[in-house]
Design goal:
CATH topology of the largest domain: Ribosomal Protein S5, domain 2
Order of helices and strands: EEEHHEHHHEEEHHHHHEE
Number of domains: 2
Number of helices: 10
Structural class: alpha+beta
Helix content: 25-40%
CATH class of the largest domain: Alpha Beta
Number of strands: 9
Strand content: 25-35%
């Protein structure tokens, strides 16, 4: 049996830099959350087709793990992958909340791809794996590289490791699921015109702890926060002073007190 952890992430800052070919470009600091993760396992099983357990509420065609499987097959054409999953099923133990801005689906897809590389002895670099993963989701390349901290830019395909001490984070995820597409659509309609590329100059060079102490306004740190609040006004009731907003929501985070 093969097993791997798929870790959550938070966005220390997330700034939209433009809009091109129907997609937003951004620059963001991604930080891995080491104490929150899903687990992906390949369990021996005679399977007639690709089989996933543990994601029953997600249709197979919409599942990021299945999309990653298809992308790997389509790109590599490696029959070892096809044959392996006639003899193994994928079992997912979910702990990362969905639609929470924590990257759970993308992390699952990336962890799956990394485990397939190991299980099937794929002769493929992490760079190539990340390029394949970018077809599955914009956050997947970050999780492929498995950095603790990185600056992510462009459409998510530019991942630059950032050296800093690991952060101890406290998370709060209200019972609100934020649809990423709706949040971005709202940002594009009402807020894209307000993008100021000079307002976050140098943030990519500043360590995360210093940045959170210097810029204490979650709206300033995350361009998607106002859009998420507009789409989900109930967020107004659950937000807390001194907490920051991750991704397109709905998770808030803060540094743990020592």
């Amino acid at each position: 049996m093969y097993s791997i952890n798929a870790y959550a992430k938070v966005n220390i800052f997330l700034k939209i830099t433009g809009y091109k070919d129907n997609y937003h470009t951004l620059i963001s600091r991604f930080v891995r959350v080491d104490d929150l993760y899903d687990t992906i396992e390949f369990v021996p099983c005679e399977c007639e087709s690709f089989t996933i357990e543990g994601c029953d509420d997600i249709p197979l065609e919409s599942n990021t793990i299945y999309k990653a499987y298809k992308a790997l097959n389509d790109t590599t054409g490696d029959l070892d992958i096809l044959n392996f999953f006639y003899k193994h099923k994928v079992v997912v133990t979910k702990r990362i909340p969905s639609q929470a801005g924590l990257g759970g689906g993308s992390s699952d897809a990336a962890a799956f791809m990394r485990l397939v590389k190991e299980a099937c002895d794929l002769l493929i670099s992490d760079d190539d794996l990340a390029e394949i993963g970018s077809k599955v989701g914009a956050d997947v390349p970050f999780f492929i590289y498995n950095y603790h901290s990185a600056n992510v830019a462009g459409f998510g395909e530019l991942v630059m490791p950032f050296e800093e001490p690991p952060l101890q984070l406290e998370l709060f995820t209200p019972d609100i699921g934020c649809d990423t597409a709706e949040v971005y659509k709202t940002f594009n309609k009402y807020l894209l015109r307000n993008v100021d590329l000079t307002s976050f100059f140098g943030w990519d060079k500043m360590d995360s702890r210093t940045l959170l102490k210097l810029i204490q306004d979650p709206v300033a740190l995350n361009d998607l926060f106002p859009a998420a609040m507009a789409v989900y006004p109930e967020m107004e009731k659950v937000k807390k002073e001194g907490w920051f907003f991750s991704g397109s929501g709905s998770t808030f985070f803060r540094l743990k007190e020592k």
